[in-house]
Amino acid sequence: MKPFTGTVIHGEKIAQSLGYPTANLDVPREKIKLRSGVYAAEATIGSRTFPAALILMDKPNKVEVYLLDVTMNLYGKRVSIRPYQKVSEIERYDSAELLIKKIQHDVEMVRRILT
């Protein structure tokens, strides 16, 4: 899978309200030749590389990344993403609790793939 780079921009903070803050990237969704879904990935910021969950959505068009076990202010920083393997599909849920369980499962799958 082809790596790409984007700058972190402000988003709606929905994932943050669920306990999984994501960095929204200014990469045009159509430039990434991957289908919508959640992917195990690595994110490189400067000289540091972190395990990450990459979230690609088509409606609305969004590119987000969740850095596992990392808390830092990323606004305005350039982030290089290297996707590895698709973990799951993007799904809609009727409750925040069900969505959080799905996110927890996806993050665990990303950990297994990257370790």
What is the CA–CA distance across the termini?
Answer: 18 Å
CATH superfamily: Riboflavin kinase-like
CATH architecture: Beta Barrel
Low-confidence stretches: none
Helix content: 10-25%
Estimated radius of gyration: 13 Å
Could you give the order of strands across the largest sheet?
Answer: 1-2-5-4-3-6
Structural class, from secondary structure content?
alpha+beta
Question: Could you tell me the number of beta strands?
Answer: 6
Number of domains: 1
Compute the average pLDDT. Answer: 93
Write down the CATH topology.
Elongation Factor Tu (Ef-tu), domain 3
Task: Bin the strand percentage.
Answer: 35-45%
| Main beta-sheet strand count, sense and barrel state | 6 strands, antiparallel, barrel
Total of helices = 2
The shape is globular
What's the CATH C level?
Answer: Mainly Beta
Description:
The chain has 115 residues and is of the alpha+beta class. The protein has one domain (4-114): Elongation Factor Tu (Ef-tu), domain 3 (Beta Barrel). It contains 2 helices and 6 strands; from the N terminus they run E-H-E-E-E-E-E-H. It has helices at residues 14-17, 96-114; strands at 4-9, 23-25, 37-45, 48-58, 61-67, 78-88. It has a 6-stranded antiparallel β-barrel. The longest helix is centred in the last third of the chain and has 19 residues, at 96-114. The chain starts with a strand and ends with a helix.
